[in-house]
Amino acid sequence: MIGRLPRKGSRVFNGSLQSIDALFGRYRRSIAGESGNPGLRSIHFHTLRHWHATMLCHRTKYVLLVKSRLGHKRIDNALLYTQLIIFEGDGYHSAKAKTVEEASRLVEAGFECVREFNEN
To answer: What is the pTM of this model?
Structure first.
């Protein structure tokens, strides 16, 4: 979703890392206070990176994609995300592509590609 944000230059976020983190902290504290959930204060900007990597690994089962997406040099670093969460149940989302373009978009979104095509 961040990649779809409008950009004026090559950077998604403008400003220093400290100013972005401070703004995120203010929003986080505000939402924690309004919702009465103090646990929200423990979520940091870098937590979003870990969440994304864990979910990508879970959805695609492709550790090399996680390694590439996060910019890790060693696969060992990406393997961390395979062990962070134990997902219970067999809940899943499915989608059917009718064209190659639709299939490409689904794969980019993290779906596994199953290459069984029926004529019906």
So the answer is: 0.50
